[in-house]
Amino acid sequence: MASASGNRVLADLYESFTVIIRDFFAKRAPSGISHFAMSHYLHQALFEAINNRNADAAREIITTILNNNH
C-alpha cells in the first residue's frame, strides 16, 4: 500500500519495519496474525483504492479498519 501511495519514503519505511509490524500483530492478541488475516479483504480493498487513486473509497475503508481495530 505504501508503494501504491506513490510515497517512496513511506514505502521504504514500511519495508524496513515489516518484521517489526508482523511481530507486533503476532504478539498483540491471542488471535494475532489470524485476526489480521480475517480482515485481509479490507486491506486488499484499501490497496486497490489507493492504487486507483480513489481517495473517497480509501478514506472509507481506512475508517472501517481503524474503527474495528483490524
Quick synopsis:
With about 70 residues, the protein is mainly alpha-helical.
List the keywords:
70 residues, mainly alpha
Description:
The protein is mainly alpha-helical. The chain is built from four helices and no strands. It has helices at 8-28, 32-38, 40-51, 55-67. The longest helix is centred in the first third of the chain and has 21 residues, at 8-28. The radius of gyration is 13 Å and the shape is flat. The two termini are 15 Å apart.
- State the helix count: 4
Largest sheet: number of strands, sense, barrel closure: none
Rg over CA atoms:
13 Å
Order of helices and strands: HHHH
Helix content: over 70%
Q: Strand tally, please?
A: 0
Strand content: under 5%
Q: Mean of residue pLDDT?
A: 82
State the separation between the terminal residues, measured CA to CA.
15 Å
**Oligomeric status:** single chain
Structural class: mainly alpha
Shape summary: flat
User: What are the low-pLDDT stretches, counting only 5+ consecutive residues below 50?
Assistant: none
Blueprint (SSEs and pairs):
Blueprint lengths: L7 H21 L3 H7 L1 H12 L3 H13 L3
